[in-house]
Amino acid sequence: MRWDDRRVVITAAGRDFGRTLAIALADLGAEVFLSARELTAARRVRDEIRRGGRQRVHAFACDLTSPASIRAFASDVAEHTDRVDLLVNNGSRYLAGPDLLSAADDDVVDTIASGATGTVLTTKGFLPLLLNSPAPDVVTMVSACGTPGHHRSDAHDAFYAAKSAQAGFVEILSKRLRPQGVRVISLYPPDFDNADPLSEEWHTTSRQAGDALSAHSLVECVLFAVAQPRDCFIKAFHFEQA
């Protein structure tokens, strides 16, 4: 599947999986609008992609804890395009520590705001552009921490709370947006390996049954779901934790 006619927005694309997905989709031909909390991080990834020969990539600052910043991001993207075909809600601050008392109050607020409020407001902000697309999709990177009963992560309770909020949001969003033709697809991965997509390791990392889940496989899950005919709504990907 080529993505030459697709316009994609990715939050928190300055590093880790957001960067990986931005590079992968740009390499397939998509026009990518990527954001990071710090504009320098977004521009660094934009420049990496452009050095690879893909010029249709744009960098923006977006603080997912700030409603004004999210509104500005959506408005800035709207100045470049009249539609968005895929919104990837990738942004959510990770907070480590299985002890509730170990995190400062500000860190708790920031973690829940970026993952929960940020996801809701970003989707809200880009919904008008999504509805202009003939084939709109919303992909949200949740986490195994957002599944009921999950307890195998050392993430802080606030991260669990943020991911559970994301899970509740995409659940109802899927039902309410389906009549408008918007597919809402969510991924619930456990901890996974994220090889640099610009390195040889991206192509050589083993992806056998006994291996940890890889970012390469997660990218392929996104590609698979979006490539399906529009009557096929793949609501969620859940993964066995090794």
From TrEMBL:
InterPro entries: NAD(P)-bd_dom_sf, SDR_fam. Coiled coil: none annotated. Keywords: Oxidoreductase. One of its GO terms (molecular function) is oxidoreductase activity. Its EC number is 1.-.-.-. Pfam families: adh_short (PF00106). PANTHER family: DEHYDROGENASE/REDUCTASE SDR FAMILY MEMBER 7B (PTHR44196), DEHYDROGENASE_REDUCTASE SDR FAMILY MEMBER 7B (PTHR44196:SF1). Belongs to the short-chain dehydrogenases/reductases (SDR) family. This is SDR family oxidoreductase. It comes from Streptomyces ardesiacus. The lineage of its organism: Bacteria, Bacillati, Actinomycetota, Actinomycetes, Kitasatosporales.
